[in-house]
Amino acid sequence: MKYRRLTKEQLEELHPEFINFLATQSIDAAEWDKIKKDKPEVAEEEIDIFSDLVWEGVLGKAKFLEHISPQTMNLFELREKDMGLISIIVGDNKIDITTATGYKWLQNNLLDEEVKIFTANKTYGEDPNLDKFKLIESGAVITKGDLFRYFDDLMEMGKEKNGF
């Protein structure tokens, strides 16, 4: 298994897709029940294969990831050959940017000495989807990229204003 098995809830959500997956292997409902009863290890393998297929599809389509903790915001843009990172670190541990109040403070105090903003680019390893998956497993979530674009635009405006 390349990634991880989908949760029971995820499998339930994808039930129609799983039925289609089994059908492509000429496994109908009666056959599936028989496999689950007589060969549970084969049933487990089928679920694992399906899980990997779903993950491949999801990771291939993902364009942005976010990982936000009380003092750190890591925003990733998932490009074809590499990923861009905008990392925002708040040095004051009394400020929690995961709350509405803390995030508002961050927006109003981006130039505060307690706020550090870094950018980086990282080339993927041998398997870009596996790199993305590791970020998700560490707590990142797939997003539409609104925060990444917001902070990217702010930094671009700052560069223009400062003549860079």
UniProtKB/TrEMBL annotation:
| Listed name of the protein | Histidyl-tRNA synthetase
What is the species of this protein? Nonlabens agnitus
